[in-house]
């Protein structure tokens, strides 16, 4: 048994014999086998006892590729751009109101109330959302 693998000596089931017969039928359908050669190979497949017996019947024929795995399901969610715009617009309105509120508080100088750092930070919110979304999509 030179050149054989340990798996070639394993005994086969009826289901494996039927699978090889079905594969041979497909090769007959596309014209790789003549009818008499198909009949001979199917007869040998029915009488096959080991994996090696079945492998020899398909050795000179291209093997069928397994079907590709299904695409991962995406869960639906709100469109990213719409969500980012709504969050940004709401935050801008709130911070805009806060930046003008100190003048009505009677202090006059809005820098004293430290609202301006929030304006700076607020511009980072859409960037943080975008970065988190890209990070999450790259991990899928």
Give a structural overview.
This protein has helices at 14-30, 35-46, 51-58, 80-104, 116-122, 124-138. With 140 residues, the protein is mostly helical. The chain has 2 domains: 6-58, no CATH class; 80-138, no CATH class. Helix 4 (80-104) runs antiparallel to helix 5 (116-122). The mean pLDDT is 76.
Per-chain topology:
Layout: H1 14-30, H2 35-46, H3 51-58, H4 80-104, H5 116-122, H6 124-138
Helix pairs in contact: 1-2, 4-5, 4-6
Question: How would you describe this structure in keywords?
Answer:
about 140 residues, mainly alpha, about 60% helix
What sequence of helices (H) and strands (E) makes up the elements?
HHHHHH
Task: Tell me, rounded to a whole number, the average pLDDT.
Answer: 76
* Major sheet summary line: none
Number of helices: 6
Number of strand segments = 0
Report the structural category.
Answer: mainly alpha
Shape: rod-shaped
Indicate the percent of residues in helices.
Answer: 55-70%
């Amino acid at each position: 048994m030179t050149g054989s693998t340990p798996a070639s000596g394993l005994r086969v089931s009826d289901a494996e014999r039927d699978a090889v017969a079905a594969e041979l039928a497909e090769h007959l359908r596309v014209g790789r086998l003549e009818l008499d050669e198909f009949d001979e190979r199917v007869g040998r497949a029915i009488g096959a006892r080991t994996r090696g017996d079945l492998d020899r019947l398909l050795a000179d024929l291209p093997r069928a590729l397994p079907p590709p795995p299904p695409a991962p399901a995406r869960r639906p969610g709100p469109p990213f751009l719409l969500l980012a715009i709504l969050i940004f617009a709401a935050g801008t309105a709130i911070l805009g109101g806060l930046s003008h509120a100190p003048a009505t508080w009677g202090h006059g100088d809005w820098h004293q109330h430290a609202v301006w750092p929030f304006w700076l930070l607020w511009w980072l919110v859409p960037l943080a959302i975008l970065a988190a979304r890209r990070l999450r999509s790259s991990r899928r």
